[in-house]
């Protein structure tokens, strides 16, 4: 919990009283690699903060899943559209490494909004972070080559990216695993 407190103090300048209310609602979960956090058809009930690990968000397909996001240490993660609307998710989330997350239930977040001075700000920032990440991804798909997308992912998370199977990286940047192999060979 110290890591999340430090991050929140730096990002939000949260008061001790607001932190006590907020932290009282957080629940720590530890998951092994390949644990499914959210299945398609389930309603997302949590906004989570990644203390340690890597989480993959993907649309399940019969042949090849479509990976559209990764969450790393100090990221917020959620099946956010399902979380906001409390309707079934069309995508899934799974851990790619052993993972520690701090989860906040939808109902508890509503309480935090009402009872703290900083709650709405934190909720807005979490939403903005998730939106900006999504927007960056969309613009990347529209404006950059697959090679540029791979290099950007590698630049943003150099230590962690090595822990992600290449088939997921290929899906994320929008190419086949064979095309990713050619990209990696070209840039090495």
Walk me through what this model shows:
It is a single chain. Helices cover 51% and strands 21% of the residues. The protein is α+β, with helices and mostly antiparallel strands and 188 residues long. It folds into two domains: 2-143, Sandwich (Jelly Rolls), CATH 2.60.120.10; 144-188, no CATH class. A hairpin with a 6-residue loop joins strand 4 and strand 5 (66-71). Helix 2 runs antiparallel to helix 4 (106-115). The chain is globular and about 55 Å long. The N and C termini lie far apart (39 Å).
List keywords for this structure.
alpha+beta, 4-stranded antiparallel β-sheet, transferase, cNMP-bd_dom, kinase, cAMP-binding domain of CRP or a regulatory subunit of cAMP-dependent protein kinases, RmlC-like_jellyroll
